[in-house]
Amino acid sequence: MVEVNNVSKSFKDHKVLKDISFTLEQGKINLIIGRSGSGKTVLLKSLVGLHEVDEGSIVFDGRNFTSMEKSERKEVRKELGMVFQGSALFDSLTLEENVMFPLKMFTDMSKDEMQERTNFCLNRVEVVGKNELFPSEISGGMQKRVAIARAISLNPRYLFCDEPNSGLDPRTALVIDELIMEITREFNITTVINTHDMNSVLEIGEKIIFIFNGEKRWEGTKEQIWNCDDQELNDFIFASEFAKKIKQSIL
């Protein structure tokens, strides 16, 4: 479980996050949604320690990550997997070397153990027989698969995904959503996805946090979202024609 307690973050005079609190649930897909510029990317980066918060705390299973020393944080970071927007694979490394990178940084595995784990992760995301290719030699959808393989290489307890469907066609985006859902279930991971893709919300979202102008405006389930009375959330949701059709079919 991840607890976010009264978190605020500013850049110079601009307050991006404003006293945000919520709990992320173990073994579920937790979505942080909101328009571009709402603060959700800053929030996600704060959760994994890429930004230091100005106020409040972030607690991983009873461990206050915010107040930890650098050496203590390193131990928690071993439990965090991250899928960056645009995949963020190293262009100069092969797919195998990309997935193996965290293993070299954070483990004492032997070369054979690292190879076995790397092969397992690539096979799990259905990237088979392509270990020696470079990122430029595969499609955008396959790059996202490799990014997920790298994120789960350390067998994380928590998986953070920043706009995992960015730049993908709708069919490939659905495949990536399904893969993230399968991995969450299979390994009982606490998954956190930052997105403005309403298809993802309706297909795989279990707990949903809506951020507007740096504030948490609403939280609940995808079932509850249809009957919420927050106007900003309704405007955000029903900008999607797909969402409108779904609402018409169930209400």
Please supply descriptive tags for the structure shown above:
251 residues; six-stranded mixed sheet; globular
Describe the structure.
The protein is an alpha/beta fold and about 250 residues long. Helix content is about 40%, strand content about 25%. The strands form two sheets. Strands 6-7-8-3-9-10 form a six-stranded mixed β-sheet, sandwiched between helices. β9 and β10 form a beta hairpin. The radius of gyration is 18 Å and the shape is globular. It starts with a strand and ends with a helix. The mean pLDDT is about 90.
Overall structural class, as computed from helix and strand content, comes to alpha/beta
Side-by-side strand order of the widest sheet = 6-7-8-3-9-10
Instruction: Report the helical percentage.
Output: 25-40%
Q: Which stretches are low in confidence, meaning pLDDT under 50 for 5 or more residues running?
A: none
| Integer-rounded radius of gyration | 18 Å
- Beta-strand residue fraction: 15-25%
H/E topology pattern: EEEHEEHEHHHEHEHEEHH
Through-space gap between termini: 33 Å
Overall strand count: 10
- Largest sheet properties: 6 strands, mixed
What secondary-structure arrangement, pairings included, does this model have?
Blueprint: E1 2-11, E2 14-24, E3 29-33, H1 40-47, E4 55-60, E5 63-64, H2 70-77, E6 80-83, H3 95-106, H4 111-124, H5 140-151, E7 158-162, H6 170-187, E8 190-195, H7 198-204, E9 207-212, E10 215-220, H8 231-237, H9 241-250
Offer a quick outline of the entry:
It is built from nine helices and ten strands. With 251 residues, the chain is an alpha/beta fold.
